[in-house]
Amino acid sequence: MLMGWAVFIALAAPGEALADTPKEIRARIDAVSKLIAAGKPEEAAASLAAGIEGLRAMQAQPQIPPGFKLLADRATAARKALEKAGVDVTRLEVPGPAAVVS
To answer: What is the mean predicted confidence (pLDDT) over 51-73?
Structure first.
């Protein structure tokens, strides 16, 4: 069985990473406040950027997964916290739930 997974991973398009799960995206977004509190704003910005990339991947799916709006709202709050901490957030654009069609 493990060999089957190895073949599947090997056949994935070059440079194409397996998408983060919603749980992993949430962990990256939620880490922002902890990193800010620890005095690591650059790491917090990097964590949010990774979370935003995960949100973009979710948004690009044919059917947007449940929980997208909640994660986008969390990312927006994390972005505001970074901005309040004095970090330049102009490059951190959170994909909005407004693009979600119910």
So the answer is: 93
Q: Measure the CA angle with vertex 64, ends 7 and 32; round to 5°.
A: 85
DSSP-assigned letters across all residues of 5-30: HHHHHHHSPTT-PPPPPHHHHHHHHH
Instruction: List pLDDT tens digits, range 83-101.
Output: 999 999 999 999 975 444 4
| Secondary structure of 56-101 as H, E, C letters | HHHHCCCCCCCCHHHHHHHHHHHHHHHHHCCCCCCCCCCCCHHHCC
Q: What is the pTM of this model?
A: 0.76
Which tokens belong to 1?
């069985």
